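Input record, target 12 of the design panel.
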């Protein structure tokens, strides 16, 4: 029994089955959790994650939290008192393993042959003279100056090490509560991964709550304007709602969490899920207007018979294109690919079963004036004129497209990859402001940890680390470098007079270094070394703080470290979040290549199979190449970076954009088979199927445009670029492909 007869004979069964599936999907949605941790988006096998985790096993898994205070002069008594109170309370809080501020920093001095380790601030100065004395002492202390106090004394920091005992939001609420407990006039900005995760977590939930209702409302209005008929609105609109429910349920069923990238899923469903229903409604309205003698069941049967092949084919090509995301290295990207592909398949099935089933139970609707000899409406009039232009001037159109492509493609020379997660949150967010302050006044916010294994009291090891430190500090990108070797040299200055053999040098003997460390522990706190050396003195770390706005700068710093330590027998590896940032950026690029290549060649092969012609595959792929090259070129011209969101662009645009070309090919083939010449076939195709394609494309564009309201700049950039890409695919299908067909007259049509 054919599908069309089954649908017409058993419409209520189809509707009932659809409702049951939706009811079963509601429970999994209630169990969805959010994952804002960008680090977890990378496979666990990536070297940066493995090395950073190994360092954490030795030195603890504490996460740094940097609180930056800004005022005219941080040495004023009110600011110092506030920092003192906060440092004291944070030190008492068991959620923090280490607190470092002006009141925790040490001043290492020598006195009568003894090593004296005192706090930088004994008491808060109340006179101008004492304030200036303290200022000079800080300037002379390279363990404080430009590390926790800026050169101009406008900024100071409190650095906390979180033990990860609390959820991110709870931790940040605790910190904010402390800051509120001791108010002041200082401007405060915070830089910390827990802070970013907490903010991302909140904004993901906020986006889901805001974007879905607004997106649905926009789509409803658009369908109403396009079809001017209740069934033309409610049926495709219901498919969108059903598909969103299925997509979100699938996340939970597969045991996946809602990621930052996952926010795109409901937006994609709003933009894509009604595509096939739109073609069904458009064909129904065409038949209703042109064949008033046909019954509703005959219209439904003819609509399904005419559309089932092109709609199934376009649905499959969209699914295959989006499945290109499965080849992406980023875990959430591949998850989005799987969930979206299955959900689009569901939307495709509902469009060919559920919508016709409902239509078959309804009476014939109002005849739309968009068809027939009397053309009315903006889109029909525009398409009629466009068809005349394409048929009259095909060569001029091809030349215009080539010139545009060359201009857009020149922007590829300016194309850049995002170097970090700075663009996740808005520019004005305190997290990003803190990055700018750290880059300008504290040598950068990126950190690399270089791990060495061996007895750290061995002079050769300490001297090599001291040498690396001096060489790395000379790099303009590097702000500060700290290590146990730096502290030992600081002690040598305190214990020796200037001009002495051992002044400002690493001692030559194991015993001397051991004595230095012992003297420090007698006067200071041995825990001061925890940042640089483990309990057994068998591992030590070189901490490098630097700034980099691009991958090239990051690679320059990393390569310099690798060259310096290349033959060091004690060198183990590097770790740190900036290396994870770098590997995340590289994964974005690789994922872009893999998903693009997979999607493009899969679509090309499908087109060859569908139309049984290599030329069809090549011609059908050209709009995709045109769209992708132009879009990436525009990214270069506008300075939009490739990031975890924009990297999804190519697979999604390929999956969606190829549909328009297939529909045009299908209609042209139908008209030419009926005896029309190429020019007449083009005019008819643009005026008829072009209407459904245009409505389809603009519904996708409107669906994605809702992402402009997202809390995340990268999702707003994605929305802008996918809209450009879809529009380019549309004009290629409606204008360029028909023009090429008139010139080449391909045999597969």
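The sequence produced for target 12 reads:
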């Amino acid at each position: 029994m054919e599908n069309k007869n089954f649908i017409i004979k058993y419409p209520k069964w189809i509707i009932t089955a659809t409702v049951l599936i939706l009811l079963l999907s509601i429970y999994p949605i209630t169990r969805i959790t959010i994952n804002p941790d960008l680090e977890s988006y990378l496979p666990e096998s990536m070297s940066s994650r493995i090395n950073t985790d190994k360092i954490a096993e030795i030195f603890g898994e504490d996460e740094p939290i940097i609180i930056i205070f800004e005022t005219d002069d941080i040495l004023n008594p009110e600011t110092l008192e506030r920092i003192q109170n906060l440092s004291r309370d944070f030190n008492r809080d068991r959620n923090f393993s280490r607190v470092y501020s002006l009141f925790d920093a040490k001043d290492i001095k020598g006195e009568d042959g003894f090593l004296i380790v005192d706090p930088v601030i004994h008491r808060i100065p109340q006179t101008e003279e004492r304030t200036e004395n303290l200022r000079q002492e800080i300037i002379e202390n390279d363990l404080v100056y430009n590390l926790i106090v800026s050169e101009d004394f406008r900024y100071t920091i409190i650095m906390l090490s979180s033990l990860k005992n609390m959820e991110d939001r709870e931790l940040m609420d605790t910190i904010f509560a402390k800051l509120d407990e001791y108010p002041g006039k200082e401007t405060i900005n915070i830089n910390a991964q827990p802070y970013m995760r907490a903010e991302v977590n909140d904004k993901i939930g906020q986006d889901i709550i805001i974007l879905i209702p607004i997106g649905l409302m926009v789509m409803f209005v658009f369908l109403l304007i396009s079809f001017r008929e209740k069934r033309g609105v409610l049926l495709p609109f219901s498919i969108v709602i059903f598909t969103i429910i299925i997509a979100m349920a699938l996340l939970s069923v597969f045991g996946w969490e809602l990621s930052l990238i996952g926010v795109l899923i409901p937006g994609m469903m709003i933009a894509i899920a009604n595509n096939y229903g739109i073609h069904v409604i458009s064909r129904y309205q065409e038949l209703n207007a042109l064949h008033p003698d046909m019954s509703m069941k005959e219209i439904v049967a003819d609509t399904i018979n005419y559309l089932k092949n092109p709609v199934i084919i376009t649905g499959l090509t969209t699914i295959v294109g989006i499945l290109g995301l499965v080849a992406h290295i980023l875990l959430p990207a591949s998850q989005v690919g799987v969930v979206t592909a299955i959900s689009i398949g569901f939307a495709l099935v509902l469009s060919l079963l559920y919508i016709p089933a409902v239509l078959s139970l309804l009476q014939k609707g109002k005849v739309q004036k968009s068809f027939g000899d009397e053309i009315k409406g903006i889109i029909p009039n525009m398409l009629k004129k466009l068809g005349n232009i394409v048929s009259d001037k095909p060569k001029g159109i091809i030349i215009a497209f080539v010139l545009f492509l060359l201009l857009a493609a020149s922007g590829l020379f300016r194309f850049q990859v995002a170097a970090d997660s700075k663009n996740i949150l808005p520019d004005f967010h305190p997290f990003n402001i803190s990055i700018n302050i750290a880059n300008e006044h504290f040598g950068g916010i990126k950190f690399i940890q270089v791990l060495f294994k061996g007895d750290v009291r061995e002079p050769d090891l300490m001297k090599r680390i001291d040498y690396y430190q001096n060489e790395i500090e000379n790099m303009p990108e590097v702000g500060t470098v700290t290590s146990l070797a730096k502290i030992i040299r600081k002690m040598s200055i305190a214990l020796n007079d200037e001009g002495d053999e051992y002044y400002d040098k690493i001692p030559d003997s194991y015993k001397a270094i051991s004595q230095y460390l012992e003297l420090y522990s007698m006067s200071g706190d041995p825990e001061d070394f925890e940042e640089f050396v483990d309990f057994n003195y068998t591992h030590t770390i070189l901490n490098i703080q630097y700034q980099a706005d691009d991958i090239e700068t990051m690679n320059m710093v990393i390569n310099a470290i690798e060259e310096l330590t290349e033959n060091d027998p004690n060198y183990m590896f590097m770790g740190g979040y900036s290396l994870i940032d770098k590997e995340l950026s590289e994964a974005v690029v690789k994922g872009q290549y893999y998903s693009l290549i997979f999607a493009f060649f899969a679509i090309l092969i499908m087109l060859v199979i569908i139309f049984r012609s290599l030329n069809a595959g090549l011609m059908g792929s050209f709009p995709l190449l045109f769209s992708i090259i132009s879009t990436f070129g525009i990214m270069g011209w506008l300075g939009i970076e490739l990031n975890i969101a924009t990297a999804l662009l190519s697979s999604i645009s390929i999956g969606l954009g190829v549909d328009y070309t297939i529909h045009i090919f299908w209609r042209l083939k139908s008209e030419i088979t009926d005896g029309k010449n190429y020019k007449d076939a083009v005019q008819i195709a643009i005026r008829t199927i072009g209407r459904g394609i245009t409505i389809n494309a603009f519904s996708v564009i409107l669906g994605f445009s809702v992402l402009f309201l997202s809390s995340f700049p990268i999702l707003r950039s994605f929305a802008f670029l996918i809209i450009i890409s879809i529009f380019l695919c549309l004009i290629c299908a409606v204008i360029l492909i028909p023009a090429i067909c008139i010139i080449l007259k391909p045999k597969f049509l």
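The first strand starts at residue 63 and ends at 70.
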